[in-house]
Design brief:
Layout: E1 19-23, E2 32-35, E3 38-47, E4 57-64, E5 70-76, E6 80-84, E7 87-96, E8 102-105, H1 121-132, E9 135-144, E10 147-158
Antiparallel strand pairs: 1-6, 2-3, 3-4, 4-5, 7-8, 7-9, 9-10
Region (Disordered): 1-21
Biased composition (Basic and acidic residues): 1-16
Domain Translation initiation factor 5A C-terminal: 85-154
Length: 160
């Protein structure tokens, strides 16, 4: 990725950037990086010695945050890449509608009635089964670059 390829997309509603620039050589394991327009979590990074073209290269093994696909990328360590702003928010689940919308309780005590999130089938089954068993559930929602997904569910007890 050359410096000319670097770009940062912005949301129209609040002007906040979806990504920020960072030098490739400073990205470490368990960090995040944008590869081919998708957000990835770095699971392994190695650095090569200076080659015949004068650049140290970083070799990344990374997993897409949302679809879990693995990808490898090699980038000169002195170049700039995009790093996604990744947010994780925990919500207490209070209802699931017939059409698949989750109704969580926000931190300030309000409800969100428009939260429809794709998640993997196993996690979705655990959420629905736990809810039907009247368990108190907390779902963690991972969001970045305009996408959201439930990635963890925690059982915090049984409803009275």
């Amino acid at each position: 990725m050359s410096d000319e390829e670097h770009h940062s997309e912005s949301k129209a509603d609040d002007g906040a950037s979806k990504t920020y620039p960072q030098q490739v050589g400073t990205i470490r394991k368990n960090g995040y990086i944008v590869i081919k327009g998708r957000p990835y979590k770095v699971v392994e990074v190695s650095t090569s010695k200076i080659g015949k073209h004068g650049h140290t290269k970083c070799h990344f093994m990374a997993i897409d945050i949302f679809n879990r696909k693995k990808l490898e990328d090699i980038v000169p360590s002195s170049h700039i890449c995009d790093v996604p702003h990744v947010n994780r928010t925990d919500y207490q689940l209070i209802d699931i509608s017939e059409d698949g919308f989750f109704c969580p309780l926000t931190e300030n005590g309000n409800t969100k009635d428009d939260l429809w999130l794709f998640t993997n089938e196993n996690l979705l089954k655990r959420i629905k089964d736990g809810f039907n068993e009247r368990k108190d559930l907390v779902v963690s929602v991972l969001s970045t670059m305009g996408e959201k997904q439930i990635n963890v569910v925690k059982d915090i007890g049984t409803k009275n």
